[in-house]
Design goal:
By secondary structure, this protein is of the alpha+beta class. Helix content is about 25%, strand content about 50%.
Length: about 160
């Protein structure tokens, strides 16, 4: 009995090692990739600085001002952000949904503060190039010709 079990295990091992099926990416693999990127974005993030671009190259970078805070929070399907500017009594916040498709982040805002609501009346959908690097990410504004304009750079706070 032991010999038969041993032989069966050896044969299974040989056949499993010899199978050379080439695995091609399928729909589920692509979807998993999107979910993984989206999962990497989930959490709380704080704006730490900006980049300005010229000819798709960073020409200037600067940090946020003292007392200025902007925080974004992503759940599996929703985004909310708020901004505090010490010298400005205007409230800034927005809420909506988002999608990640490859390296493109799209935020669709449903409502916001009084000032943001005026912007949302004109434009609800905000598309950015997305670069995630561990506990930091950049969302890059792209012009109509596909050139980078500026980036907001965030660090993970939770």
């Amino acid at each position: 009995m032991k010999a038969a079990m041993s032989l069966l295990l050896i044969m299974l091992l040989i056949f499993s090692c010899n199978s050379k099926t080439e695995k091609k990416p399928d729909e589920s693999t692509v979807e998993l990739s999107k979910v993984t990127t989206k999962t990497q974005l989930e959490g709380a993030w704080e704006l730490v600085g900006y980049y300005n671009y010229m000819d798709n190259k960073v020409t200037d970078s600067f940090s946020t001002s003292i007392g200025y805070r902007q925080v974004k929070m992503y759940t599996p399907t929703k985004v909310m952000w708020s901004k505090h500017i010490p010298r400005d009594s205007t409230e800034w916040f927005g809420y909506g949904s988002y999608t990640v498709d490859g390296n493109e982040l799209t935020e669709i805002l449903e409502y916001g503060s009084e000032m943001m609501s005026k912007i949302i009346e004109e434009k609800k959908e905000f598309k950015h190039e997305l670069i995630i690097n561990g506990d930091s990410f950049s969302q890059i504004e792209i012009d109509e010709d596909g050139n980078r304009i500026y980036a907001e750079n965030y660090k993970r706070i939770e």
